[in-house]
Amino acid sequence: MNPQNWEILSAGGAKSLSSKPLAGMPFDPMPLLQSFVDWRKSADEQKTRRRQIEMEGRIMLERIKMECGLLDKYLQKSFEIREKSLEKLFSILDKALAEKDTRCLEIVVTGIVELVHSNPIPSFQAFQQARAKGEILEL
Fold first, then answer.
1. Would you give the distance in Å from CA 124 to the centre of its chain?
2. What is the 3-state secondary structure of the chain?
3. For residue range 100-117, what is the model confidence (pLDDT) as tens digits?
4. What is the spatial distance between Cα 75 and Cα 81, in angstroms, rounded to a whole number?
5. Domain contains 9
C-alpha cells in the first residue's frame, strides 16, 4: 500500500498521512498488546470450554451406557424371577387340576393373570430412585 494513501481516524475525521506515516506521532504498543493478550486469553478459555463440553458429553454417553446395562440386567433378573414364579404357579395349577380343587384353581389362575399383567418397569423406577439416594441394592 502506498504510504500517501494511508489514513488515520481522528476527532476531525480522516486525514491523509505523509510519506512518513507515524512521523511525529507517539506510538503506544500497549493497547495493541493488551488486545492480543485479551484475544489469546479468550481463545484459551474457549478451547478449555470446548474440551469441558466434550468431556461432559463423553461422561453422559458412559452414564447412558451404564444405565442401559443396568436396565438390561434388571430386566433379565426380573424376567428370570417371573419365569420361576410362573413355572411354580403352573405346577400348582397342574396339581389343582389333577385333584379337581376349584378353590385352588381360582387362586392360581388369578395369580398367573396378575403376574402376567404386572409391569416390571415401575419396579425399575423405584430401583433407580433408591439407587439415586445411595441405597445399596442387589439385582
1. 19
2. CCHHHCEEEECCEEEECCCCCCCCCCCCCHHHHHHHHHHHHHHHHHHHHHHHHHHHHHHHHHHHHHHHHHHHHHHHHHHHHHHHHHHHHHHHHHHHHHHCCHHHHHHHHHHHHHHHHCCHHHHHHHHHHHHHCCCCCCC
3. 999 999 999 999 999 988
4. 10
5. no
User: What is the domain range of residue 56?
Assistant: 28-131
pTM of the complete model: 0.52
Residue with cell string 507515524: 22
Model confidence pLDDT, tens digit, residues 62-90: 999 998 898 888 889 888 999 999 999 99
Total structural domains within the chain: 1
Query: Looking at the domain assignment, is residue 21 inside a domain?
Result: no
